[in-house]
Structure formats: structure tokens, C-alpha cells
Amino acid sequence: MLMRNTTAALLALTAAIACASxxxxxxxxxxxxxxxxxxxxxxxxxLFDDHxxxxxxxxxxxxxxxxWANTKPIQQKFLSIFPNFKEGTIHRIIDGSKKEVKDALxxxxxxxxxxxxxxxxxIDLKSYAKLAFIQNIDPSIKHEIIMPxxxxxxxxxRSSNIKNPDRPxxxxxGVTACIRSRYKLxxxxxxxxxxxxxxxxxxxxxxxxxxxxxxxxxxxxxxVDEEGLKQLTGLDTPVTGVLEQNMFYVNQVMRFGKLLxxxxxxxxxAKQSIATVMIVLAVSSSTLETQKKYQSVPVLxxxxxxxxxxxxxxxxTGNSISSGLPNYVRNQIKxxxxxxxxx
Length: 343
Known about the structure:
- About 25% of the residues lie in helices and about 25% in strands.
- The protein contains 10 helices and 12 strands.
- The protein has helices at about 1-25, 65-70, 75-80, 130-135, 190-195, 225-235, 285-290, 290-295, 305-310, 325-340, and strands at about 25-30, 45-50, 65, 90-95, 95-100, 105-115, 140-145, 175-185, 210-220, 240-250, 255-265, 275-285.
- The relative contact order is 0.19.
């Protein structure tokens, strides 16, 4: 018991330090992270772009998967949940019968870049490719290590499209941890979920808890496409390491997520390094298009999914997932930057 309490206290202290460090970093929005001059990057500054045209609406916030694949092939290559991923199918009840329909996806994509005050060669990514790294990013989300045989993709038919054809999830070179995560919605959102469920009749009910599973992977040298990654980041210096988190199962709302962090020496100062962090979250188009059902109920008019996901609803609260994707992703990146800067 003493050991457990001590470990919990140490984790809490580490998380508090991470939050304090994260607060030192400031987000600066730019039109293009990859296209920004390296001289724009100052210490404790994060260049950030989530492609939104208007923070009060959803304009530019989401891009259809097919459009993304056609217009951003380099991003699609590296940021899809696996390289050859394509939209699959799901089953829906239509006119009283079960039918197979296309699972059209829309993506929320963020790009960020920050400077670290030590050479890229001095960053030991193995020390970050662990459960503790994920735990310290957002203390509101609870994580545990699981075995590859326990992952939900093997059991939930909705996730059949997310099975990696190249290798089983949580298996293969470079995988360092298989993680199950759990986040209970905060503030008024659980009440909104309960009310929304009354409108869903026989549909799959919403949960007030988001559960997801992911793998942490440190790319082996043989798997690093250096020239492709240079195109992705816009930096023409050697790639010294790549860390990724592949979120291959989510119980609701999202289909998959991916975090990719690429480390390179600074072209301006050999004693500094540059981290480019990109996050992709895939949401079902049917979820984003669910508006009329909620708008017809006065108490739920602010629970339109696209508004909640973007943090533009009175139901949004806090600094984690319940605050909306833009705020959540910003806080994630600031926390990551703080942890990496401390070394």
C-alpha cells in the first residue's frame, strides 16, 4: 500500500511539474507550420496550425478523408492510422433493416513545431516511449498497460476497418507499449449525454466515458522514410528520431487518432533541435452531420456534435477532452513540449 501511494504521489508531482512547464510555452498560430521560416521559432514558442478559418464556427476545421488523400498525399501517407488505410463500411438500421453503408470520415488535423534547447542527438526517445510519458500529458485521462490479446479491435465489429493489414496492433518492431485509456466526461456533458440517449430509441447509446486503446511506437531506423519526412516537416536536416502513438480503437465519436513527433537538428543552431508534432483525429461524417435531432430539443441545441467537438458549446468545460478538440490538442502539445524541454 505504501509503495502504491508513493508511486501515485510521484506521478502526481511529475504531472504537476509537466503542467507548470507546459504553461511556459506559448501557442502562436501560423498559416503553415511547414512553410514557416525557422527564424520565426523562438524559445518556449509553439508554431501551431489547425486549419480553422474561423474559431467561432467549424469552417475549415474538418476535411473529408478522400479530399485529404487527394490534396495532401504526404500527410495522408504518414498520418493515416496505417499507410494503406481506406474508409470502410459500417452497419446501420435503415427502414427497419440492417444495411452496410460507407463509413465516411472527416479529419481534424493539427500541426505544431517547437524548439528544444539541446541537440537532437542528445534526446533519448526511448525514455519517452513509455506509459509514464502518456500519463504525464493529461492527468485527467487514466491509462493502463494491456496485452495485445486484450485489444477491443478484435472484439468490436465497428472497428473491423481499423485492423492493420501489415501487422497486429501492439506487435512488431519498435512497439514499446500497448495502452488502454479511459476519460470520464466532465461538467454538464454527462447530463447532456443522458438526455441525448432518450432521443436515440434503439440506436447505440452514448456513454459518458470515452475509452480508447493505442500503441506507442519508436520507429526503427529501417522504417524511417527520411526524405518523405523531410517533405512532411519542411525541414531539410537529418531525421534523428520518430515517435508515434496510434489510437486504433475508440468506443464512440472518433474512429482513430494518431500523434506523430519527428525530431531533427535545428538548421540554424547545432546546439538546438526541432520537434514537429502532428495530430490527426478521425470522426465519422454521420456524427458531424447530426444536427436536426438536437436542434429540435431546446435543452440540447448546444449539444450539436460539431459544436461540442470544437469547443463552441455551453456544455464544454475544463482543459481536457471535454473542452473540445482545439483546446485539448493545444494542451497536449504544450504538455509534450514541456516534458521534452525538461529532458
